[in-house]
Design goal:
single chain; 488 residues; alpha/beta; Alkaline Phosphatase, subunit A; Arylsulfatase, C-terminal domain; eight-stranded mixed sheet; four-stranded antiparallel sheet; 25% helix; globular
Length: 488
């Protein structure tokens, strides 16, 4: 299923569509990174309820990737992959926290806990940009340690080990740098304002701003002044959640204010804007259809995310890319944009997307991409679109190569094969009818795990109770226990 961003050009002044700026200059980099923001949560990707005119405008001025993936299905591992350019087996952040998730009686294997802190010896892309002369800032969610500064950021506002706003989106914010919040200040608005201030203060030299909003992660605290608007709005067939809609509009309004200051300071032509999400949308509040799944699952709805890049004079406005790309590719891409080399003594699993962005290539060739999750993530209270009602994901590895995607689940040895070109919703398992494809992908996935030293859980969990698991599955599988998205 494709979404044509060229139709969005009606929102873009003709002048801004013309290539401009000196691509040889070291560009500023604005990386807008959202939390739990689903593949279809923007109007340009087809939302029929959420409003994102400023984001849509930027997308129309750049290249939209419709086969872009996070490197993990939930927050912390996705961020570790993004910052390090490494798949999860290298940095060993597999889940949010290291403790087992879900009922012990329903976990057949002992999970692999890994770590919950990104090794500070890993040279992040922020460190490489800092070494190349950029002023770097992290604003918003960090989640990989207590402080992003040791990882290559000159400035930290809002970043700690917390995976969600400690007190919600209204004061007291209780995060670094935001202790002076006035009454009723909305956290998303404040972070956008801090971004504007940073750009004003550092306009005379190259800067890289990692604007990593907490939005739209839970708690679903609506921006109060927007509630009446969405309560009065006709519900969409795809989206309908009022609080989520206000949270998304708050992000979008902030993007508009940032774009306005770039225009005011005449920085538009030499600023790259990257827009990305850490994983799929929050299941109880949004919908990724036609994709199956949501945050925490390794079906498409849990890992496929919105992604675009705007770079005047380099990226053709209104262009689209259908090549599968993944979060670990961001690291080498940002380094090439900034004109700095990759660290010579550190593995980087991604590849630069610059040949796609500048139009010199339309494909990266036969390049498989991978996911590895040797842990458990419990289900939402109400559920559907996952393998069973107890866990959004059980221990697994996944490979995508071209049109084909193979899931391997370690508890049972089950395999699922999907042809994403004809079955983007992963409804028709072809693992038995296409044994040659299944065998080839499984061999490549197994070889990759060996090469990267990926730990695979094999030890039985002594607390597992098969009868209790069966009872729990039966109870949750009763009619009417599925997920209820349409919340007003």
């Amino acid at each position: 299923m494709r979404f044509n961003v060229r139709s969005l050009s009606v929102f873009v002044p003709l002048l801004l569509l013309l290539p401009s700026g000196n691509a040889a200059e070291q560009p500023n980099i604005l990386f807008i990174f959202l939390d739990d923001f689903g593949w279809r949560d923007t109007a340009y990707m087809g939302s029929d309820f959420y409003e994102t005119p400023h984001i849509d405008r930027l997308a129309a001025q750049g290249m939209v990737f419709d086969n872009a993936y996070s490197a993990a299905a939930n927050c912390a591992p996705a961020r570790a992959c993004l910052l390090s350019g490494q798949y999860t087996p290298r940095h060993q952040i597999f889940n949010v926290g290291t403790k087992p998730r879900g009922s012990a009686r329903h976990r057949r294997l002992e999970h692999i806990g890994g770590t919950d802190v990104l090794d500070p010896k890993i040279v992040t892309w922020a460190r490489r940009l800092q070494q190349a002369g950029y002023t770097t800032a992290s604003m918003g969610k960090w989640h990989l340690s207590n402080d992003p500064v040791p990882y290559g950021f000159d400035i930290n506002i809002g970043g700690s080990h917390s995976g969600s706003p400690p007190r919600g989106y209204y004061p007291p914010h209780n995060v670094p740098g935001l202790k002076d919040a006035p009454k009723d200040e909305y956290l998303t608005d404040r972070l956008s304002d801090e971004a504007v201030s940073f750009i004003r203060q550092h306009q005379d030299k190259p800067w890289a701003l990692y604007l990593t909003h907490f939005a739209v992660h839970t708690p679903l605290n609506a921006r109060k002044d927007l509630v009446a608007k969405y309560e009065a709005k006709k519900p969409g067939q795809l989206h309908n959640h009022v609080a989520m809609a206000t949270m998304i509009e708050a992000v979008d309004q902030g993007v508009g204010r940032i774009q306005a200051v770039l225009e005011e300071l005449q920085l538009v032509d030499n600023t790259v804007i990257v827009f990305f999400s850490d994983n799929g949308g929050y299941g109880p509040a949004t919908d990724m259809k036609p994709l199956k799944g949501y945050k925490g699952t390794y079906y498409e709805g849990g890992i496929r995310v919105p992604f675009f890049v705007k770079w005047p004079g380099v990226v053709e406005p209104g262009s689209e890319c259908h090549e599968p790309v993944i979060g670990v590719d961001i690291y080498p891409t940002l380094c090439e944009m900034a004109g700095t080399a990759l660290p010579g003594d550190q593995a980087v699993d991604g590849v630069s997307l610059m040949p796609l962005l500048d139009g010199s290539k339309t494909s990266l060739g036969d390049r498989p991409i991978f996911w590895h999750f040797p842990a458990y993530l419990q289900a939402y209270q109400v559920w559907d679109e996952q393998r069973d009602p107890l866990f959004r994901s059980r221990p697994c590895s996944v490979i995508r190569s071209g049109r084909w995607k193979l899931h391997q689940y370690f508890e049972s040895g089950d395999l699922e094969l999907y042809d994403l070109d004809s079955d983007i919703g992963e409804t028709n398992d072809l693992s038995q009818s296409r044994p040659e494809v299944t065998a080839d992908l499984l061999a490549r996935l197994t070889a990759w795990r060996k090469d990267i030293a990926a730990p695979v859980p094999v030890k039985p969990n002594p607390a597992f109770d098969a009868q209790d698991e069966a009872r729990a599955i039966a109870a949750k599988s009763k009619p009417g226990r599925g997920r209820q998205r349409k919340q007003r």
